[in-house]
Amino acid sequence: MNATRRLNGLGQSLWLDNITRDLLDSGRLKRYIDELSVTGLTSNPTIFDHAIKESAAYDAAIRAKGRNGTSAEALFFELALDDLGRAADLFQPIHEKSDGVDGWVSLEVSPLLAYDTASTLVAAKALFVRAKRRNLLIKIPGTKEGLAAIEEAIFAGVPVNVTLLFSREQYLAAAEAFLRGIERRVAAGLNPNVASIASVFISRWDAAVTGRVPELLRNQLGIAIAKRTYASYRALLDSPRWQRLENAGARPQRLLWASTGTKDPNASDVLYVRALAAPFTVNTMPEGTLKALADHGAISEVLPPDGGDAEDLLALFARAGIDVDALAARLQEEGANAFVRSWNELMAVIAGKRAALAKAS
After folding, report:
1. What is the per-residue pLDDT for 1?
2. Closest to 258 measured CA to CA, from 217, 303, 300, 289
3. Which of 34, 46, 131, 212 could be bridged to 136 by S-S, CB 3.0 to 4.6 A?
4. At CA 233, angle to CA 171 and CA 284, rounded to 5?
């Protein structure tokens, strides 16, 4: 049994952290579904920026859709919804077979709205309606302003992927927003089964402390944070508060490991995938990491529900001078800013392509 199938059998969903038109047109995504147990897909502004900038596959659509004078942002969402609609259709059988637990794709609201609650909520609702796909999650960042939008979106019945979470505390804040939204639905007599994912970013922790910690701790911080977060996640699933909601018909907000491609060229290319095998979770990985896992990955252990040695490891980082709370806040802010930069570049790429194509026609 290959490693991708083994992970699936352990109760972890494998999602692809990529979307391009070529991935769809070539049949590659379908093969990953059929052969590598891929059961979902995530996207972000950086992924779309690379996809549109580095390919001519979008040129015909940009030429056709850009003739009516729509803004670069409106044109982007048309392109993205086309791609993600096709991907959602490929995953629809999985969505139906799992009764809505799996088979999801994700689309992010504009990262310019990360600190604007009201506009985020309006955008999330509008995108979900436009997508016309039951298995599309709307990504909302877990910033302070985003948390309020997440609660309101869940209450409104919009499935949410909470993005840009970096710590146990940030995860728990996102989980609280989800729980409040579900509790309000129960109180209002509404169906409490609204899907949500909480995405915790892993590899950026280790990139942030490279050269600042002893060699013994190299590439261990992201894993320690994940273990600590997983312990809180499992404790929440066992809590009376959650079990009351589950008895009312709610489904858990699943924990997702994001940013699981290895950034250290001297480390294993499947480092984070092997370390974070865990039931009741999702691992979304870059295409290269997925291929590496299928080729030479080996899964031998699963995360213990209590987080194992997480606190011992984090104590070593504290002694090395790493303030994980401060670093988590910094990483979230840097992540939001990075998505804004990618978004602005993406808008410029689309506007530039539209102008060049119009001139050439």
Report:
1. 55
2. 289
3. 131
4. 70
DSSP state of 200: E
Give CA–CA dist 162/165, Å, rounded: 7
Number of other residues whose CB lies within 10 A of the CB of residue 314: 20
Strands (E), the chain: 12-17, 38-42, 105-108, 136-141, 160-165, 196-201, 254-258, 281-285
Structure-block tokens of residue 297? 């990955």
Tell me how crowded residue 333 is: count the other CB atoms within 10 A of its CB: 14
- Residue identified by tokens 């910033």 is 143
- For the cut 80, the answer to whether the pLDDT of residue 129 exceeds it is yes
Q: Annotated catalytic residue: which of 97, 125, 132, 139?
A: 139
pTM score of the predicted model: 0.96
For the chain, state the CA radius of gyration: 20
- Is the Cβ–Cβ distance between 146 and 99 less than 8 Å? no
Mark whether 227 is an active-site residue. no
Contact 162, 196 (CB under 8 A): yes
Residue 275 CA to residue 211 CA, distance in Å, equals 22
Q: Which residue has the tokens 């392509």?
A: 353
Residue 150 pLDDT > 80: yes
Q: At what angle do helices 28-36 and 72-97 cross, to 10 degrees?
A: 30
Residue 340: how many other CB atoms lie within 10 Å: 15
In angstroms, rounded to a whole number, what is the distance separating the alpha carbons of residues 275 and 319? 23
